[in-house]
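Appendix C reproduces, verbatim, an entry submitted by the partner laboratory led by Prof. M.T., so that reviewers can inspect both the input and the predicted structure.
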Amino acid sequence: MSWEQQGYGQEYGYSGYPQQPYPQQYVEYGQPPPGTAFLPPVTEPEPPASPALVDAEAEEEKPPPRPPGRDRYFDTLRALALIRVVGYHTFGWAWAGLVFPSMGIMFGLAGTLMAKSLERPAFEVVRSRMRRLLPPFWFWGVFVVLAMLVHGWMPGRQIVFWVLPLGDPPGNAWGEQAWEILWYLRTYLWFVLLSPLLLRVFRLAPVPVLLLSLAPIVVLQFLWEPPDDRLGSALTDLATFLFCWILGFAHRDGVLERLKPFAVVVLSLAALGFGGWYAFTHQAETGSYDLDDIPLAQAFWSAGYVTLLMWAKAYFGIDFAWLTRFRRTDRLVTVLNSRAVTIYLWHEIALILAVPLIDLFWDVPAFEKWLPLESQWFLFGVGWVLIAVFVLVCGWVEDVAGKKKPQLLPGRRPARMSP
């Protein structure tokens, strides 16, 4: 497979803050752990009888309200996954996937949300997911396709995959750094389409089906080599992250919290051990122990890692509710989650544009003397500045796709005037 990334997610209420309408993309991740319950919402007090100007500065100091049911633990994991993706594509660290397997985490979170959504009619859920995903993809694709056409690309019949990415959309070498990330969207879309069937099969025998979901990648590695084409790439990526997606079902259905802790820890460590061993003993085949280049190692390492993260969440009831005490960090997590698709699609273009932009800095003597223009960390910082620009300029497409009022930045509360 090719890259790392998010994914994504879309879909918290804390006592003590006024409850706001529940945005469509926010979906409850799971049931509260045994012996606990969500705190009841606190209603907003009546406004004062006499008109008064609400202190905007004091209002800004308050943490933004959360829709009931949102879990900041999963929000934080998704935000870290996006940051790690950008870091990996800036520095190329082979060890990054071992420290934090972003793609496995993203597919696990998406599986949880999908299981929750499928409490509604399957056709409605699949249509909603495609509606949220495709317009941001089309908007981004217009710019990428036009740029490749200007640089000599001659499309064929496969251009249909730029409309519905059930296979890898084609492109030329000039634009490869931009379009090669689309494997994630293609894999996510296939999981969405297959989820009604997968969830039904999973609920017939949850634990056996979960364990057997690692079998396809073993088959592709040792028994049948998939073709070196779009079909082979799709099958390999689906097999690599199938366990993580179904693990999301297991979390949503409460299966994880019913398992014996000893068994979960032992099996997870065994999967981590095998995945790590396989990666380091097969470096000669790829030239690196990078999990992105070794699907079998990626599948087992992600399986063990994500299982421990989700089991800890279910068993200990971790929710990261304390994050709301840190207003700016909490806001950043909100923006990263609400603009996950935009960040993922545009981050490589931001990194591409950062290079010629930094080249211009060399023409300014003061910049050349005082700025670390040769540092990859400086490239990383400039890349995030450009990502922020793309979020402001293009992020509204996600709002439109989700049938919401477009916003420059999600979650902002304007100062209110009393009547």
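The mean pLDDT is 85. Additional entries are available on request from the coordinating office.
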